[in-house]
Amino acid sequence: MGCGYRQPKGGYLAAAPNLKRNMKQLLAILSIFLLFSCNKKQDVSKSFQIPKETTYSTPLSQTAPAVIVRDSVRPDGSHIVTLRLEGEITINLNPGTPPKDTTPTVPPPIDTSKRVTGIGINTLPWVPLEKLTMFSTVRLYIASGWIWRPNGLFVQPFWQAQTAYADGLDDYLYRAKGLGIDVLPCINMAPDWYNGYSQGIGSNDYPPIKKGLNRADPKNWEDYAEFWYQIVCRYGSKVHPDSDLRIDETPRWNGDVKNVKKSGLNLINAVEIGNEWQMWWNRGTEKDLTYLHPEEQAAMLAAVYKACKRADPNIKVIMGGTTNFELPYLKAMKAKFDQLGLPFQSDALSIHHYSSKFNLKGVHPPTWKNSSACLPSEDKDFPTVYEVVAWGKSLGLETWLTEFGADSRGPSWMHITLPGMTDEEAQGKLIVETYKEYFKAGVTRCYVFMAADEPGSNGGLWQSSGVLRNKESGWSEKPSWYAVKNYVESLKKK
User: Fold this and answer.
1) Architecture of the CATH domain 13-26+99-492
2) What is the pLDDT of residue 55?
3) What pTM did the predictor assign?
């Protein structure tokens, strides 16, 4: 439920509503390059005003008064430099030959023998991974429109959301592997070009299926299954012939990096097929079709699971996280799988749950009020997790809690206050206590929401749920970051 999906639901990833604004700014910056044409016989130079602080990752030569704000070293030894530009900048564009793919080789293995497994966090590609090394795994939100194009994958660099820190998905996964962090890609939403809906951000909340098709028929999800087949071919452990691979080689602008076919990179061991497909908050509205009924999500998984296992039999395929302990919904999915003659088409149950003083056992959706976040001991619905875990075990499945957390600032339903503590300290206590209680209940992995506060966050639901403050604050650590770090260190000593 984190992921920006609240009041009114329909936000975009964890940065809603701010990410939409930021994305528009980013695209506006990138569009600068499209304004220029290059004569084959000579360079063309133009001068123009740009924002004071801009990150460039595209091939260009430039001269301008500038101050180095950040110098990031990539795994291949190259540098990405963020400059603060003063006044005008002159850019000389020469298309020349598009640069070759520069994906680094797999880093040497590091010692992860003391890594505490199951301690996870939700994040976005631009949050520095170096700040998250006490977590054994990260759940990485990726909007499908960033990487899924009509002709295939466009992943290195990202089609959208390109930043100095995460130029592409290859780069990100190599960096994570070098730090000993497992990445669970949660690729969600649908590209606007595919299903014909639009939220003005390139991706939308509607399921990735063509309009008008029967969503309870697995055959109608074959395009989506093919997309996931390509993802697992590239990042899983099995090498495939180039003839099996589909990438989009279309450059975004003159001199853009060309995507290259690759497979068997062995950078992931699990994938999560979307996020919160049962968007109950949109029921009965003009966005009613964003809600996937249990038999529809089961049909989707029946197609995708088969495709992923064909790409890599060793990959774990995880259903999109539910919005709560929705055991009736999970049981209805199983009934559909039974009808199709299939076992449950997910290698683990994925659930979300946020503890509130106003939760009631088995009552979904919940009714929340401002500043109602609480410790698991005060959450009347928390014991339901034991039922979910037991049911999953009856199917031979683990249970993963892929979202939980609280805000450290109000006004927010998930804002937490505790006697004798600052709100930021209270957030840390909630996170650690929640980890403990879920592991006690038999949950295998737990992912706190969220790595960092939203840009410009000043209150609001999930805007201050990070263990890090936002980029404007320099990604500084909150008390909750230290609380998790100390908890992990204590587990290492046991």
Assistant:
1) Alpha-Beta Barrel (3.20)
2) 40
3) 0.81
